[in-house]
Specification:
By secondary structure, this protein is of the alpha/beta class. Helix content is 38%, strand content 21%. The radius of gyration is 20 Å and the shape is globular.
Length: 384
């Protein structure tokens, strides 16, 4: 099935056009897709969103690759098969989004942003792996695809993450919030963007949903702790929390990024293993809240307003802990309160990054990823 367009790579976009954004987090619980109107500098959400799980066998393979990337991906045929399967599942969402957009009388979708499935991210080793074949997607949809958003940044000495600050800044400015203002995304890790005048800072603050979800999956067979109900019944373990926060990663200065799997070894900490599962989840939520508070305290200014998005906003225990740990004069809002989407924020980001690539606009800077120079994110695949 093909959807044709006449856009070129270098022509600046003069109007907001419909672009599909596709994102799947490291938990591999599903694929988020959206259609957003954007020129790469301003955005209008259409409300056309879709969240769909991977096929069960694909999800199992993704988790196996994530948990042992060196072993699982060492077989070229197995890696290619998984890359194709991941791409196939994303393509199914593209078809649905294209038809939904057409039914809503939007102009035809003209571009796809395809992040791919992260199974490994290690900036210190200069390596990141996102499974997904942009050329296959372009060929099978007839639309140009922007993908592989992290490699150019890493090749220029950057962390390859976070990618979100450019979108967070746009949302904060469109909401006309008093600055300094912050935007926190609670995904597998917590990443923070702070805008203050001409300054744009971005960095990961610590693990977030990734470790909590791993405990739920491994011990309870649950995808996640719904509403944070289990954590609410638990008691945080201070020795464990202090052990995690003593990790050298938290002492890194400047822009920093994290793969929550780097912290997976703490799930085998003797103090942690002995805890009831409720206490484990309460302790991990406390790590997220305390590491955020520590990061904000190190800024050279106080953040007036903090917008919070991502799956973690549904964890009421985590949100309460964040409020408890932050200064009383920091005003906290959810993304919905500024007409953004907590659940689709990352898919929308990928649509924006695709638009910025298409318009020749940079998306990462030294102060957000530690790259040596500003970078245009992504690689373009044209339909053949």
């Amino acid at each position: 099935m093909h959807y044709h367009n006449n856009m070129t790579q270098t022509t600046a976009i003069a109007e907001l056009i419909p672009i599909i954004g596709l994102m799947s987090g490291t938990s591999a619980d599903g694929i988020d897709g959206c259609v957003m109107l954007t020129d790469g500098q301003s955005v209008t959400r259409t409300g056309i969103n879709l969240c769909q799980p991977y096929r069960p066998e694909v999800a199992r393979a993704v988790l196996a690759a994530r948990d042992d990337p060196a072993g699982y991906l060492s077989d070229p045929q197995r890696r290619q098969a998984l890359t194709t399967a991941v791409t196939d599942d994303h393509i199914q969402i593209v078809h649905q989004l294209v038809h939904t957009a057409a039914a809503a009388d939007l102009p035809p979708v003209q571009l796809i942003g395809f992040h791919g499935q992260t199974v490994y991210h290690n900036p210190s080793a200069g390596r990141t792996i996102q499974l997904g074949d942009g050329q296959q997607m372009a060929r099978e949809t007839g639309l140009p695809v922007i993908y592989d958003f992290r490699h150019a940044d890493m090749e220029a000495g950057g962390q390859g993450a976070p990618l979100a600050p450019v979108y967070h800044q746009i949302l904060l400015r469109q909401a006309r919030l008093a600055e300094p203002a912050g935007f926190l995304n609670l995904g597998g890790v917590a990443n923070l963007t702070v805008c203050s005048g001409n300054d744009l800072l971005g960095f990961d603050t610590g693990p977030a949903n990734g470790l909590m979800d791993a405990v739920c999956q491994q011990q309870l067979g649950l995808a996640f702790d719904k509403d944070g109900a289990l954590a609410a019944a638990g008691t945080p373990c201070p020795p464990f929390i202090q052990a995690v926060l003593a990790d050298p990663w938290f002492r890194l200065s400047g822009p920093r990024s994290l793969d929550w799997a780097q912290f997976r070894s703490y799930l085998h900490n003797p103090d942690f293993i002995a805890l009831p599962v409720e206490d484990k989840l309460a302790s991990l939520a406390a790590v997220t809240a305390q590491s955020l508070a520590d990061a904000l305290a190190r800024l050279p200014f106080s953040v007036n307003t903090l917008i919070i998005a991502g799956g973690g906003v549904h964890n009421k225990t985590l949100m309460t802990l964040i409020e408890t740990h932050l200064p009383a004069d920091t005003f906290i809002k959810t993304a919905e309160q500024i007409n953004a989407s907590s659940d689709m924020i990352e898919a929308e980001l990928i649509a924006l990054l695709a638009a910025r690539h298409n318009a020749g606009l940079v998306s990462t800077w030294p102060q957000t990823t530690n790259t040596s120079a500003p970078q245009i994110a992504g690689v373009r695949a044209e339909p053949l």
